[in-house]
Amino acid sequence: MAPESRHWINNEFVESDAKETITLHSPYDESVVGTVPVADEQVVDSAVAAARKAFETGPWPTFTAAQRAQCLLKFADLIQTKADEIAQIEAESIGQPVAFAKMIVGACVATYRYYAGWTDKVAGESYKEEDGTYRIVQYEPFGVCAGIAAWNATALYLGWKMAPALAAGNTFVFKSSEKAPFTPLIVAELYKEAGFPPGVVNFVSGGGSTGQLLSAHMDIDKISFTGSGITGRKVQDAAAKSNLKKVTLELGGKSPAVVFEDANIENAISQNSQMFLMNTSQVCAATSRVFVQKSIADKFIEALKGAFKGAEGAFQNPKEPTTMLGPLADKLQYDRVMSFIQSGKSESGAELLVGGDKIEGQKGFFVQPTIFLNPKEDAKIYREEIFGPVLNIKTFETEEEAIKLANDTAYGLASAVYTASVSRALRVASKIRAGTVGVNAVAFPSAITPFGGYKQSGYGRELGKAGIMAYLQEKTISINMAV
Ligand code: NDP
């Protein structure tokens, strides 16, 4: 049966006479997964109008914090029951292994539960009367919010963007990537079942043109974007040129991992191989530049090479429950990664240690896990985000040199430090210019702590208390005590 493909507006699936449609093919066997309509201006306008009406006059603004929490908790329970269905469709659409896709659903559930707890925790402030005036600060939802997501973890973005926005009392219009449009439509009816009134949650499908319509819309108050820096700039530009809607940008990275000579090598190897290759390294926080101290470099590099070679067998049919690694998301992504590998071979000055080709004997867009040693400082593979299983390694001698290398990037999303010394870990962590630092492990985002980028990895934060504050604005009320 073809997956549900209609837009979800006002708690109903709506037919649209779309002039344009998008057909998805499996990156594993190129079979047709389904077709979605592209939301045009009329569809986007009607989704935004539904969200506006729900925010202004629907029952939603009268919901107590406890009622909003109840909706979020119920939805968390309900989406869990769809984990298998979601995992299947993500495996078909972007080649994400079902086991990994279910973990993503689990993270989405955790995010809804976490933000259910926040609905009644954001207090305001009051100031002692001064000069005859009593002052109160209260936090209010923006109104209509929108989310535009990357394709690598759609269920995660349903959590990271929508759970805090809804907990804060906003209404929402969400656009997933054209590469992964089905998960929101699988769960759409669950929002209704969980008690969210009509218009509070709306899903539109489409590509860049739909994203552009949302970014430029005059009646959206805030937009949260996850994707590449190039598109993020377009979103910000459209927001500035339209109604100056508030913008949160979660962009890409070229994150460093620094391995010191006193590190637990076995752990550093598994974090920089198994964990790095997770989701076929299509992970914004992947630590794709590894710096290893010279004294242990030979041993570390030999072992990492072995781990990358050994991982090749783990790339299998993403629909099999035991599969750990899948193909790249589609032909475009495959061509992009292969062109980086080509440039690594021909113009980076680096030594290709392992990989560097497609995986033979497998249908689908599979690429060998690849390591380049000592690329030139201005090499494309060293500077630009690849979003695929390609790692760069360089060596260093001193801590200062390691920090300099780690920070020598336009990005600042994530990082990792491997060492047995707590003081060194803290010293280095405080000097790395990135939104997260993992010590002896990659920093896996958690619902309870903020996630987001320094420098060109974006601004604003999702998750944690910062995640809900990003969907609230301060209002000062001053009271003339003389009257
Ligand atoms: P893109 O920037 O290509 O697309 C992101 C989203 O923007 C998609 O929904 C896309 O639609 C939409 N879009 C495209 N053009 C426009 C436009 N002109 N205006 C508004 N929206 C538009 O990124 P990818 O989807 O390829 O995702 C990979 C990128 O996302 C990487 O750089 C990665 O690092 C980053 N990322 C960041 C994360 C973070 O939390 N910091 C997490 C995960 C990924 P469509 O796809 O349908 O064309």
UniProtKB/TrEMBL annotation:
Gene Ontology MF terms in the entry: aldehyde dehydrogenase (NAD+) activity
Reaction catalysed by this enzyme: an aldehyde + NAD(+) + H2O = a carboxylate + NADH + 2 H(+)
Domain Aldehyde dehydrogenase residues, every copy: 13-477
Keywords: Oxidoreductase
E.C. numbers: 1.2.1.3
Catalytic residues identified in the record: E250
Classification via SUPFAM superfamilies: ALDH-like
Membrane-spanning intervals of the chain: none
Family annotation (InterPro entries): Ald_DH/histidinol_DH, Ald_DH_C, Ald_DH_CS_GLU, Ald_DH_N, Aldehyde_DH_dom
Pfam families the record matches: Aldedh (PF00171)
Record family assignment: Belongs to the aldehyde dehydrogenase family.
Protein name, entry field: aldehyde dehydrogenase (NAD(+))
Organism annotation: Rhizodiscina lignyota
